[in-house]
Structures are given as structure tokens and as C-alpha cells.
From TrEMBL:
Region spans: Disordered: 489-578
UniProt keyword annotations, A-Z: Cell cycle, Cell division, Cytoplasm, Mitosis, Nucleus
Top-level lineage group: Eukaryota
Species this protein is from: Sinocyclocheilus anshuiensis
Gene name as annotated: ints13
Full protein name: Protein asunder homolog
Amino acid sequence: MRMFSVSHKTAFVVDHCPYMAESSRQPIECDMLAKSRSQGVIPLAPVSKSLWTCAIECSMEYCRILYDIYPTWKLVNYIVSDSEVHILNSWKQEDQNTHGLMAALTAVGPPNPRQDPECCSVLHGLVAAVESLCKITEYQHESRTTLMDTADRVANRGRIICLTNAKSDTHVRMLEDCVLETIQEQNKRAAGSDRLMPIQQCELVLVHIYPQGEETLVSDRQKKELSSVLSSEVHSVRAGRYLAGKLNVLAQLLMCVCVCMCPCVCVCVKEEQHANTSANYDVELLHHRDAHMEFIKSGDLHMAGSTSRDSGLKETVTLKWCTPRTNSVELHYCTGAYRISPVDVNSRPSSCLTNFLLNDSMIDAAGRTPVERAKSQLERYTRYWPMIISQTTIFNMQAVVPLANLIVKDTLTDEDVLTCQKTVYNLVDMERKSDPLPISTVGSRGKGPKRDEQYRIMWNELETLVKAHLCTSERHQRVLDCISACRSKPPEEEEKKKRGRKREDKEDKSEKNGKDTEEKGWTTDSERLKGVMEREKDELSECEIIKDSPDSPEPLNKKPRLATEEQQPPEKSKGPVSLFTLWTNRITQANSRKHQEFAGRLSSVNNKAELYQHLKEENGMDVHENGKATR
């Protein structure tokens, strides 16, 4: 069964009969100019509120606390009873607000003292409250739909709070009997209807209001079970501030809320009274009891008194205003978030605390809620966030901390941009001085990358960080421009180091000889091999020239030249010669000098040798396959 608490539906019934127009007899001074009043001015007489006004203020305060702590799932149906019933709102969520109720009460107006009291009764409102509890709310309808439209599986509980001026205890019992009979009748009707739900449990809270200075005719009574579906309790309270305090305690007991004392420094009060001193003011806040469930379980909750309803005392716990700091001792674990409501909403300490909280954390100028701003901040802080600290360089450098802390902000000021630029200039100075960087050597052989490679990694990572926040604002672009400008001008010391390397010296010599490896795309090893082969070719060509001269002696170990070399010179390559071709040609030439050439290839004509030359006879006759000789 889907459980709905008794406080899910609360029907407020306020008596609007003529006797509610009687004065509460609690005077309120309206003359605020008693000291500065000139002579001859008649002072203003004090005024007092009526029982109706006291009932309306207390009931609306109850609704305010309910709506503050329970914005949903806790519904109020406000009913005014006189000669007829005035239902001011419904169970719909859009009707649950104090502004709409106050507007409807303004239309109803105060009770008419000249109206016939015989035709007015609070019974009309109690009957209408029972009928209203049988109606299905939106939340109950959703639960019935989820549970396959089975009304028996959804609990229907509610509460009726009646503010009236009873005549006696007998009158109170008559009101209770009327409510019980109405519940029984409405349950029979609801059993045969799809639009109504039987009431399974109802709590009736009767609050008898009487003027100050009079004796009460109604006795207080604790909660009593009148039947299996109805329980009742009676409170007899004097009007005025006594009624307000009593209903405040009832709100805490009926809604399962508790009070905490929150010390807060009220700046506005301190500036007016004691400008040079500091003072703390206690602000009472109402919130759900579950917020201190851990304290209740452990027994650490400070008890200010008994929790019995007749004593009116309540549980309290003192909270301390703590600004989060980096010290781990001052950081506390968060177990949940609960809504709060001030006890005295009109007091200056409460107003100061409320204004401070509203100015610090509700909707900002862009229309974003605190949750949306928190998500946006988390997204900015994790756009570039290395998961392993050994894989980052800039987050291990203390010099980059100012820039890393500012670049994640939503907006940058001119001072922030200047700080980021100074950080970049400091990095440039570190590179000029060749200061070591915290480069991780995990997984690498030797001492890791060289100094210039370390700074290249650092600059690339820094650019990646700034580019991740480039779309945030225009000033973020200025930081990236500064980094790009500083990277485009390498230090002179770095150029000198590059010129002093042996490898680059060899590359400079090859450039002077007209062998530019970058334009031809050849590697250094291929260039060296080609140079060796060209020198060997030059030596061979010189030997050929000396051999062809008539004065040159015949070489001792003369090796015949390949016919293929004389007849078929190597074709000129149309493009760069590969290393494999160069190496193959060199091996071929070297091997050709190490063996005696085939005699048939030496005497061949046009690379063709005649076979079976020994078969020729001395007389010039040839011998063929048929054995005949021919000339």
C-alpha cells in the first residue's frame, strides 16, 4: 500500500460567526510619538485585534511554515464557515500559496457582528472539511495510476484544524460527534464512487480561542481515539501572542519539525547600535527532524525540555555559522539538505539572515539556480583535468598556480588577465634560465626528455588548458594570445645550444655543399652513403682516364669490364634514389671485382654469345645435327 501521512491533507476551518468579531483584549500601542509630541495633541488610543484577526494570522503562519519546509506533498484546504461555506482553494498544487489565500480572505472580509448568530455555525465548515478529505489529490491519483487503478492500495489520511470559540465542553463533544458521523456517511458514498476515497484515518484538532481576561469554558484534552478512523484533541488558548505561540508549537509537533538556534551576526543592527563592536543574535529556524537524525540516534541532541504537548517545550540544537576553509578540521561531512523556515519571520535578526542568504545564493542575474551554477562551475573546473598527476606538468608547477586558478573562472577582470600574463612571462624567464621542470620519468629510459623537449611539453599543455576555456569570455582569448606571442620568439640561448650540437654542425656543412636534405627529403644516413658512393665513382672514373692514356702502363691485375656496363649504361633515376638501390649497386660493383668473368660473355656480340664454337673444322666446314658438312 502506498502510504500517505496524516499531514498530506490538512483542512483549516476558521469560524466566521459574529462572536469571532469580539476583541481579543490585548492592546497594541499605536502612538509612536509619545516623547516628541507637542502640547495639546491628543494621544492615540491603543487598539486590539479581534478573535477573527488572531485566528487568521496564526493559521496563515501555520501555512507559511508548511509551505516553506514542505513545498510539495503537504496540501492545505482553507475553509471559512458562517451561515454558508467559503472554500478558498483546492488540493491542486498551484493553489498552495499564501498570496492566493490572503487574497481570498480579503474578499471574504471580517465577520459581521450584527449577523444573526443562530444561522451561523462552524458545523458547516467541519462537514465541508470531511467531504474535502474524501476527494483525491493529484499525488494520490498518480499513485493509483501507478498501482493499476486500485484505490484500496492507496492510503487516505488527513487532518482537520478548527479555530473557533466554543461555548463549553459539551459543545466540543457535539462537534466531534458531528465529524464522526460525517466521516461514516462520506465513507459509504466513497465506497461506491471512483472519484472519492474513503477516509482511513482523520485527526481533529480543535483550538478554542477566548479573549484575555476571561475564564475559559473549555478544558484542554490530549489526543483521544474516538473511533478507528477519528482521533481528537482540544486546546484552549487565549488570543493574541499566546495563540501565536501555541499554534507555532502545534505546527512543530504536527509537522514533525524541530527548532535550532543559529547564531548569526546581524550587520544592520550592529551598525545602528554598536558600530565599533561585534554582537551575535540567535535566529530560531524550523526544519525537519530528520536533519538531526544522527544526533538523535547517538543521544547527542541537546534537550531544552520535554517533548510532551502539554508543556509546549521542544527539542533544540545550536548551530554555528561556519565559512568553509581549506583546513580539513573545519570541513564537515554533508549528510543531506533540508529546507528551513524562521520562527519569527518579522524580527530583525531573522530578516537580516534571510536577506543575506537570498542575496548570496538564490537566482542570479542570468536566471540560474544554485544547482545550475554549481553544475556549470564543476563543468569548467573539469574541462582539462588530468586523471593521473604523473601525466601532467603544469599542475605540478607552483609557477602556473595563479593562471590555473584564474582561467577556470566564469569571468575575468583586467587584473586577472594581467596576473595570467605575468605568469606566462615568468615561464618564459624560466625557459631562458633553463630551470628544470617536474617532468615524470616513469616508463622512460635514461634521464627522460631533454630540457628543450620538457619546455615544449609544458607549453603544449598550457595551451591546451587555456584553449579549453577559450569560449568562456573575451579576456580568456587575451591570455591565449599572450602565450602564442611568447612561444613564437625562442630565446637566444636556445639558438646557441642548437648551433653547438654536432649533428646540426654536420647538417650546416652539408647545406654549404649544396646538399639540402630537407628539400630532397632524404635521411642523413642515405646522404652519407650516397656521398661515399660518389667518391668511389670519382676514383673509378680517374682510373679509367689513366688507363685510356697511351703512356699509361698496363695494370697488373686487369679485370675485364662487364659487357652489360659497356652496352647498357645505368638509366638515370627520375627521382630520389632509395637507400636499397644505392646499397644494391654498391654490392654489385664490389662483387664484380672479386671473380673471373664468364668467357662467353666476354666474346659476345650485342650481349649474344655463339654456342658450340669448338665444333667448327679447320677447313671452314660446319657440322650440323644431321652430320653433313656445309661451307
